[in-house]
Amino acid sequence: MEENIKELEAKQYIVVNIGQEQYGIDIKYIDNIVRMQRITRVPKAQHYFKGVINLRGEIIPVMSIRLKFGLEPDEFDNGTRIIIVKLDAQSAIGIIVDEVKEVVSLDESMISKVNTELDEKNNYLSGVGKHGDSLISLLNIQGVIND
């Protein structure tokens, strides 16, 4: 019975690679995962906005997390994906990741909060999850997109 309660408290995260790091995105915000496709540039957009894509008739802005975090520019290969994130029912945004790894369930005991003074990337991280031997930086996807 206690195991069932723990299962309810666990959140699911999709684990992605961005550069050399593993990041987790709360699965409740993920609408879709699509292969890399042609991105139409938009003039005078922020440097980390790559442009827009047409996904089944919906125009979706696409953002490079690498550029937003000040990392080296994206290198597109067969593993590159665009994750379509929806913070609310209306707006969708695509974020480019190097690779989608897996879905993991983490409960509160497996997540450490981040000291916000140490998080120079404003409030881009909500915590660090421990999964097996690896650490997964959990993205505060609202902070990343709304900044």
UniProtKB/TrEMBL annotation:
Any Gene Ontology CC annotation: cytosol
Domain CheW-like: 10-147
GO biological process per UniProt: chemotaxis; signal transduction
Signal peptide: none
Pfam families, A to Z: CheW
Highest rank taxon of the organism: Bacteria
Annotated InterPro entries: CheW, CheW-like_dom_sf, CheW-lke_dom
PANTHER family: CHEMOTAXIS PROTEIN CHEW (PTHR22617:SF23), CHEMOTAXIS SENSOR HISTIDINE KINASE-RELATED (PTHR22617)
Name of the protein: Purine-binding chemotaxis protein CheW
Species for this entry: Anaerocolumna aminovalerica
